[in-house]
Design a protein that fits this description.
Blueprint (H helix, E strand, L loop, with lengths): L2 H23 L25 H12 L1 H16 L3 H17 L3 H15 L2 H17 L6 H18 L4 H14 L3 H14 L4 H13 L3 H14 L3 H14 L2 H14 L3 H15 L1
Length: 281
């Protein structure tokens, strides 16, 4: 599998992960009035999840060829004695995992680097990777570590730059994903869009949280805002799902078609065709 294939695969996992989660987690009933997601469930304490635990499945996903460089860097890190050498190798591992679009192990290495350097950009990157990992994983046993890591990273980033909209957005998403402080997270996201109404990341996540709370009219507006500034297959997919929930079949079909055009993948295309067929019947 080459890098382009990995990019496509990760993107599909992110969207299809949402689909597969619905029968299990379900949507919160529309009678609930807040833009909030259900608490994430877990079976393992966040502190017990290590970079090695998330690296193994990531290596399986990318294949032996692409994993060879990472294996070499890991071996060198284990043998490294000086702090400077360890830090350099952690940076290289973070970048290497980024190169193959595997956010979970990348997040842990960025976190390790940020804890040593306390750099705003590194904290921000670590938090973003933890949120990305939470989004695409199907393993609920490791999600507490992703939430904890994201909260730590964005909190530290905001200590260095309190007005960062990217930091507030990331922390807001982490709070909602964690379930312990969902309204605090929503408040942060709303603060971001109050300052920057076209903020793509904040609007996308507010749209997703609106879907999960049954506020589909609000979700439509959020996704339209995203599409107006950055049209991609993911935002069109969520828009289509929202229209479907509202019973607006022609609009849902049109959004599905746009989604399919932007993601030329046979498996994904077949799933979209199935949804369109169901709407037409």
């Amino acid at each position: 599998m080459n890098r382009k294939q990995i990019v496509i695969a990760v993107a599909i996992v992110a969207v299809m992960g949402y689909l597969y989660s619905l029968p299990v987690k379900g949507l919160i009933k529309a009678s609930q009035t807040h833009e909030a997601a259900q608490p994430a469930q877990s079976t393992r304490a966040a502190s017990t999840v290590t970079v090695q635990m998330v690296s193994e499945p990531a290596k399986t996903a990318i294949g032996e060829g692409l994993a060879a460089k990472i294996n070499d860097l890991e071996s060198r890190l284990q043998k490294a004695s000086g702090d400077a050498d360890k830090l350099s190798l952690q940076k290289q591992l973070a970048a290497a995992w980024d190169d193959v679009n595997q956010p979970a192990p990348a997040a842990f290495y960025y976190q390790a680097v940020a804890r040593k350097e306390n750099n705003f950009d590194t904290w921000l990157t670590a938090g973003s990777r933890f949120n990305d990992a939470f989004k695409i994983t199907q393993d609920t046993a490791v999600t507490p570590a992703f939430i904890t890591g994201a909260v730590e990273a964005f909190t530290n980033a905001l200590k260095l730059k309190p007005q960062s909209l990217e930091g507030k957005t990331g922390l807001g998403v982490a709070y909602v994903n964690g379930g312990a402080s969902p309204m605090q997270g929503i408040a942060l996201l709303r603060e971001v869009v109050a300052q920057d109404p076209d903020n793509i990341n904040a609007n996308l996540n507010l749209g997703l949280f609106s879907m999960k709370s049954g506020q589909f009219d609000k979700a439509v507006q959020r996704f339209k805002t995203v599409i107006a500034h950055k049209p991609d297959f993911e935002s069109y997919f969520y828009l289509a799902e929202t229209y479907k929930q509202l019973g607006q079949k022609p609009e849902a079909i049109a959004a599905y078609e746009k989604c399919k055009q932007m993601m030329p993948n046979p498996v994904f295309g077949q799933r979209i065709d199935q949804y369109i067929k169901e709407l037409k019947n």
